[in-house]
Structures are given as structure tokens and as C-alpha cells.
Write a sequence for this structure.
């Protein structure tokens, strides 16, 4: 009898080894290894700890399991443990072990929607976030994307603060870490239940899952289960779903299956409002907002520096103090002459030739382009533009701008050059 039991155990180990050889190690460790293997008659019986696990294995891995069972002359059955009281603790049994987030994960400060300074470009995404926070929506998952510092994390913090019911919020890095820890601690099923037991699930920086196949598969199943249960899902990333790298097409389409909305970078008015909310004087905020080249993180850093200076030195920050205090941050003011010299370098003409009396075709075209750029990028009058470009009169400037406007309609290369020069001069 002992010999028969030993033989059966050997056969089960052979079956497990055959299954492991046909699957990637992460999937085998996560889903198959925790199962209870038995051979009853001519049937291989795999017992899972809960119905979710049995359903997932049956839908994703059944073909592999059936083929291995057939190799041993067995049929396949996948079931759940019902009414069985184990004599010893089973590491994956949710009735025995529970899951909780690692204590080292810091809880971020919950924000309210009024803290998000909204410009016209961001009115749509802000309205979508408010609608989702108010209750269940039909456009889940809400996928929010934008460059670093545009306010994505602030928006999801606002959703977390306003949403009713239980909300789970993780960063992409935290999800990877917690998923890996649950595999190591053999609490994967408890981790799955933890993530699904919510009304709103938020994942900030989904790009952190790129290239991690097992984690991405688990997250894809989580999205499908939450959506099927009518739960809200919010995802953020630095690019649109179609531009995410490290994800297969199936995951990209899953991310884009709800509402995709972008968050625009802070405008000058948004930067000015952020500075004034932090206590910066209105005249200083007006003067430096346009010279902060960067995202919302940099604006907050500038505001914090000014606020700290005021507290430590006991005096208000004037424009002169701000110029000195923020010398490493503020973009140097561009004078019209500096703009012209920069454009000369980019167009490959000499500054002396542009401001001189030369009439060769290349110089004339470059001069006309510079006049048109200064008209678009600055508040200079036509007389001032003529003075900067070699003391040209008003009529010459008007003619030059009209010529460039005509050329832009037919010359796409020149039009692209003009647009880039205008952006560089602003």
C-alpha cells in the first residue's frame, strides 16, 4: 500500500513537471503550483482554493493542462474546495490567511478638486474625473495621460478623496511590488480578493508594468473582473495607450476600451495661479510665470523656495530678490536683438548681413522670416521690428510679412521652420 502511494506521488510530480515545462515559470508559480493534484480513477483532479482561481485557470490554461493529462492517459477536472476543512494551514487559503498592503507604503495626502487649477484645455478631463468620483460610470476605465508634472497624480488624488465607497489607489511600482510579495508569501489569492474588494480602483503610472508579463496579465484580468462587476477604474500614464511600450496589443486595446483623456501641461495663467496660491506676490508671479520653463513640479519648487525665503528672512520677495533667488531656474529674458541673432544662427546667415544693405535672395528671405516671427512671437510694433532688423521702415516690414504669409501657404518646409522659430522665441 505504501508502495502504491509512493508511485502515485511520483506520477503527480511527473505530471507537474510536464505542465511546468509547457508554461512560463511566473504563470506556473502563480496559478498551477498552489493547486491540489489528485488522480481519481482515470481523471486528473485539480482543486483550487476559490471559484475565481478555478474559472481563470479553466479559461486561460485549460488547453495546456488537458494535453498533459492526455499524455498520461487521463481526463481533466478543475474544481474548488467546498466544505473541506483542512487539518493544517494552507498558505493560499483566503479563509486562513488575509492580505494587507506593506506597512512601508506611505499614504499620500488626499486632495480635493479645487486644488487642481484648470485651464480650458483640461476642462474635459476634470469633468470626467468629477463624474467618476460621483458614482459608477459607463466609461470605465478612465485612462488619463500627459507629460510629467501636468497634474495626473493630483487628479487621481482628488478622485480618491471624493469617491464614495472603498477606493484602492496604488502606483504602478507598488502594484508590481505587492504582486511579487504575494507570490513570495503564497498569499496570491488573498491579494486578488483585496484588489477586487473595492468600488474604485486607481493605478497611477501604469507604464511601470511594462515588460513584466506575469504582472501585466494579472492586472489585465483585474481590469476585466472589476469592469464586469460595474466598478470604476482609473489609470494614468505618461503617453496614450497606443504609444505605451512593453505592452502587447491586447493590453493596449484594453486600456483604451473606456475613456482616454489627456492632461495639458500648465499654461502661463495656471503657473501664475499656482504661484499666487503659494503666497507669491501678484506682481512677482506675473513677471516670473512666463519664465518658468517646465512642469507643475518645477512651479511648486519655485513657490516653495519663495515661501521658505519669506519665512526664514522675514521679508517679502521682490522682483529683484526673485531674480537672484531663482537664477538657476528662470529662463533668461529674451531681447529682440538676442532673438534675431539666434534666428541668424539657425537660418545660417550672418547677423551683419541681415542688418546690412545686402539684397541676395537668401539674406532677404531670412530677414523677411525674422520680421514675421517677431510679429507673431512678440508685442513689438512694426516700427520696432524694422529697427531691430537693420533700421527698415514700416512699409518694408509690412511687405516682408505679407510675402512670408503667401509663401507659407505653398512652402510646407518654410511653414514648419516659421512655426519652430516662433516657438523658440516665445
Amino acid at each position: 500500500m505504501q508502495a502504491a502511494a509512493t508511485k502515485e506521488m511520483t506520477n503527480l510530480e511527473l505530471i507537474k513537471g510536464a505542465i511546468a515545462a509547457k508554461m512560463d515559470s511566473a504563470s506556473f508559480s502563480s496559478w498551477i503550483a498552489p493547486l491540489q493534484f489528485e488522480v481519481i480513477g482515470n481523471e486528473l483532479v485539480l482543486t483550487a482554493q476559490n471559484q475565481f482561481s478555478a474559472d481563470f485557470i479553466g479559461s486561460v490554461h485549460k488547453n495546456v493542462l488537458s494535453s498533459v493529462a492526455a499524455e498520461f492517459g487521463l481526463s481533466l477536472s478543475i474544481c474548488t474546495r467546498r466544505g473541506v476543512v483542512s487539518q493544517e494551514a494552507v498558505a493560499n487559503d483566503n479563509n486562513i490567511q488575509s492580505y494587507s498592503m506593506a506597512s512601508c507604503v506611505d499614504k499620500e495626502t488626499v486632495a480635493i478638486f479645487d486644488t487642481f487649477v484648470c485651464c480650458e484645455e483640461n476642462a474635459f478631463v476634470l469633468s470626467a474625473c468629477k463624474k467618476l468620483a460621483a458614482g459608477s460610470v459607463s466609461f470605465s476605465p478612465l485612462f488619463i495621460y500627459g507629460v510629467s508634472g501636468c497634474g495626473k497624480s493630483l487628479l487621481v488624488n482628488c478622485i480618491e478623496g471624493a469617491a464614495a465607497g472603498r477606493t484602492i489607489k496604488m502606483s504602478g511600482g507598488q502594484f508590481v511590488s505587492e504582486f511579487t510579495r504575494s507570490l513570495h508569501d503564497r498569499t496570491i489569492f488573498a491579494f486578488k480578493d483585496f484588489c477586487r474588494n473595492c468600488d474604485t480602483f486607481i493605478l497611477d503610472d501604469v507604464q511601470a508594468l511594462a515588460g513584466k508579463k506575469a504582472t501585466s496579465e494579472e492586472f489585465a484580468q483585474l481590469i476585466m473582473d472589476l469592469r464586469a462587476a460595474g466598478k470604476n477604474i482609473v489609470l494614468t500614464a505618461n503617453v496614450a495607450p497606443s504609444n505605451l511600450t512593453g505592452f502587447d496589443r491586447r493590453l493596449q486595446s484594453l486600456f483604451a476600451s473606456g475613456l482616454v483623456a489627456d492632461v495639458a501641461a500648465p499654461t502661463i495663467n495656471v503657473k501664475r495661479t499656482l504661484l499666487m496660491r503659494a503666497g507669491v506676490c501678484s506682481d512677482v508671479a506675473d513677471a516670473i510665470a512666463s519664465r518658468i520653463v517646465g512642469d507643475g513640479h518645477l512651479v511648486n519648487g519655485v513657490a516653495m523656495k519663495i515661501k521658505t525665503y519669506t519665512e526664514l528672512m522675514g521679508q517679502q520677495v521682490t522682483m529683484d530678490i526673485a531674480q537672484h533667488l531663482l537664477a538657476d531656474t528662470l529662463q533668461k529674458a529674451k531681447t529682440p536683438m538676442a532673438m534675431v541673432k539666434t534666428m541668424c544662427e539657425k537660418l545660417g546667415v550672418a547677423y551683419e548681413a541681415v542688418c546690412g544693405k545686402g539684397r541676395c535672395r537668401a539674406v532677404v528671405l531670412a530677414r523677411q522670416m525674422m520680421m514675421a516671427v517677431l510679429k507673431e512671437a512678440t508685442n513689438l510694433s512694426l516700427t520696432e521690428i524694422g529697427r531691430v532688423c537693420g533700421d527698415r521702415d514700416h512699409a518694408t516690414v509690412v511687405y516682408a510679412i505679407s510675402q512670408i504669409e503667401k509663401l507659407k501657404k505653398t512652402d510646407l518646409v518654410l511653414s514648419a521652420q516659421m512655426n519652430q522659430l516662433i516657438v523658440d522665441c516665445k
